[in-house]
Amino acid sequence: MSIVTVQLGQCGNQIGFEVFDALYTDSHCPQGLCSKRENEAYQASCKERFFSEEENGVPVARAVLVDMEPKVTNQTLSKAAQSGRWKYGQHSCFCQKQGSGNNWAYGYSVHGPRHEESIMNLIQKEVEKCDSLSGFFIIMSMAGGTGSGLGAFVTQNLQDQYSNSLKMNQIIWPYGTGEVIVQNYNSILTLSHLYRSSDALLVHENDALHKICAKLMNIKQISFSDINQVLAHQLGSVFQPTYSVEGSCHYRRNPLGDLMENLVPHPEFKMLGIRNIPQMSENSLAYSTFTWAGLLKHLRQMLISNSKMEEGIDWQVRPPLSGLPTLGKASLNRGLHFNMSIANLVILRGKDVHSADLGGFKDSALYTSWLEPINAFNVWKTQRAFSKYEKSAALVSNSQFLLKPLDTIVGKAWNMFASKAYIHQYTKFGIEEEDFLDSFTLLEQVVASYCNV
Amino acid sequence: MTQSVVVQVGQCGNQIGCCFWDLALREHAAVNQKGIYDEAISSFFRNVDTRVVGDGGSISKGKICSLKARAVLIDMEEGVVNEILQGPLRDVFDSKQLITDISGSGNNWAVGHKVFGSLYQEQILEKLRKSAEHCDCLQCFFIIHSMGGGTGSGLGTFLLKLLEDEFPEVYRFVTSVYPSGEDDVITSPYNSILAMKELNEHADCVLPIDNQSLFDIISKIDLMVNSGKLGTTIKPKSLVTSSAGAVKKRHQKPFDAMNNIVANLLLNLTSSARFEGSLNMDLNEISMNLVPFPQLHYLVSSLTPLYTLADVNIPTRRLDQMFSDAFSKDHQLIRADPKHSLYLACALMVRGNVQVSDLRRNIERFNVLLTKCPLAHCQTVP
What we know:
A: Rossmann fold, CATH 3.30.1330.20, 3 domains, cytoskeleton (chain B), GTP-binding (chain B), microtubule (chain B), Tubulin/FtsZ_GTPase_sf (chain B), Tubulin epsilon chain isoform X4 (chain B)
């Protein structure tokens, strides 16, 4: 089943390009470490999900590019076409001239309705090309104007028009030190709207990705394309094909559906995060060897201590003892910064996958009391290695990891709102103070729910 | 890509404007090697086939035939405009883009605003409409004027009201030259106050500049160049103040160097909108992020570096020094000391070979000072 990707805004388009590139490069990577038949099945599955066939054999990405100014989409389209390996459809791009001015209200209330028909038509065309649609993957940032405002509008429209399909939004959490002054406003408005209309929110923080680039990849001068490549690597390790049932050799057909079934048991908890291990520069890769036990141990501790990469993990944090009553569990959690999970999904790729022991993840202390580990924890496996890593593991988790950043952003936005700064820019385009207050209420509710997990 | 129209009013406005167009042409010439009329050039220039008489000569793509500036030149006395039209830039301006009178405004805001305003209202509107029609997607009007005189301040601010009524969706960026301590116009305080009221109400964003700061910057540069310490390492034509000899080689007028600084400022402000980069910031984003309340739209600007070194690989320390300089009051184009008062918002626009990690590092350094700061990042080196 196929996934249609919608790339919105400068951030969305830049990331989208890297994602498709990573997916393509991996599926055509010669070092798959498995049999030829296996490799071909993998390639075919990946191709069915993300690319469609064109006459001259060059795969066309199943994507719609939307931006309100032409610079980035032109760059993205030409980069893809120049690579010669895959490209975007000629008519799958929609852009305007003037941009959204980092204004959520402009993206949502002005650009949205104005261009609703054209954008939905483009998406419709892309959907018709699919044999069967698994769902939508929407890539956007939260700080800007187009990605956030228009993204929220498009997601709502998809909810109305394709109510049977699943939608996963990939959102980029801006740098804590700031990229755009009104990013807090844009973020809270986006999050509150997406929480109502999307099925799952996959969050990547710029700060975390930046640290990964600096510490693990040893890149001295980090550019946005480096950050995007790390992100694409993480997404690729989740979305590439995996076996559907333990032991069988058929690849999973409905990745989005299975992901949501496993990870979003309750609509109040929709925020997902990815952790990937190992992650290192290509030069170091040649000198490293891994064991499943070591990788999984690190991954588990990364989950528990809420660390985003395998360096600097706090090994002191431990899950609380299972004998204590629920209330005790909650207070102990806060003291040790233990990251409680609602659901986890581990994806293993590479050699000797079946020998990996995942007992550490089935510990009921890691999970909330209202979900048994047998329901809360799932594993996906494939023998085919990902992107030259002999063994790699990815963890998609629905946990408290975003609690602190979310709280911070809501706090900052509230401070700005209290002084009514910049509000006139939003009311100019129809977003009133009540909309802001609604967003604050919804997000406070989400923060409270995650806190009391 | 969006287009902008520059409206230059009064003697000061026209002189700055002249430097601006010169620098803009030079910048595009350096970047655009093939002579194709592309979107970057179209933001300030039209491509016109001069053989066609009348209005139909605009060409939108292909090779550059003849570039015409998207500008309207207004002055109530003929001297300055005539000089421009006799200089090397005469082909860049369309003769239909000028409005002149003979007697001038006599340094009187009332004459500029009320008398000439009502007299020339229709003509001004017509020229503005014409230039707007030539634009595919007009984003912004840049108005350049001085506050102390008569035409610049009076007629310039009259224009703002006209623009707001006629083109309500187009941004109005005003570059105002404020009178400095030693000013030669006696009525300049009155003119400035009357003009400020109009700016408050009708402009979207104002970039105040004053002559004294510009003069200080020039003295600083001269000191650097003449002290000989860095003499051998400075690229000869890289000064922010140099016009690289093309426009007025023989008679270097006293205000030329200062006008070049302002022209540089305008070019750099719009660079992210014209060229590609990894984090673009358009003009509407600038006004969105830097204007927290409708009437607080006065932006203090500063430029670094003031000269480039011959060594192309800028070591990190020098880059960090540039960021520190951007916040120092010696590099500002108006006398003000923000460090001892409060930063409401600030924006850093970076051009050239600077990566996100450098930006991050420097912003963290200034975290004490800054609580709110957006970034833009443009890849083209001027």
